Amino acid sequence: MYQDKMVLCASSSYEHKFYLNEDFDSLPESIKEELKIMCVLYTEDVGGVLTLEFDEEGDLMFNVTSDEGDLLFDEIGSVLKIKEIRQKKEELLEALELYYKVFFLGEDVDLEDK
Q1: What InterPro entries does this protein's entry cite (predicted)?
Q2: Among 37, 38, 39, 60, which is 20 to 30 Å from 16 by CA?
Q3: Whole-prediction pTM value?
C-alpha cells in the first residue's frame, strides 16, 4: 500500500512550527500532544528540522536536517538528544510502529511477541 516513507510529524526551529500528518488524526489527543512536545523541545534544544517518518517496513525513523549556514545547529547534541528520546520514549515509539504496521501496512501482528 505504502511504498516510500510516510511522514508522521515534523518540527522546525526555523519556522517555529509543528506539523502532524492528517492521516494520523485518529491518534489519541494525548499521543498527538506528546509527539508535539517531544519534537518541539528537540528543535528548540538543538535547532534544525526534525521529521519522524515511517520507512517501508514500518520502522519509525528520525530524520534531521539543518540549513547549510546554520552555525547554531548542534550536530553532536542532535545525536545525543535522539538517543535520549529513543530511550525515554521507547514504549511510545514502539506503539506508534505497531499502530502504523497494523492500520497502514495491514500487517497481522502477534501481540504476544510485544
Answers
A1: DUF6145 (IPR046143)
A2: 60
A3: 0.90
Measure the CA dihedral 70/75/76/81, to 10°: 110
Of 3, 14, 25, 4, the residue nearest 64 (C-alpha): 14
20 grid coordinates: 502532524
Sorted by where each begins, the domain ranges of the chain are: 6-113
Ranges assigned E (strand) in the chain: 6-12, 17-20, 49-54, 60-65
Q: What is the pLDDT of residue 74?
A: 92
Give φ, ψ of 64 to 5 degrees.
-120, 130
In contact, 52 and 8? CB cutoff 8 Å? yes
Closest to 39 in 3D by CA, of 102, 4, 85: 85
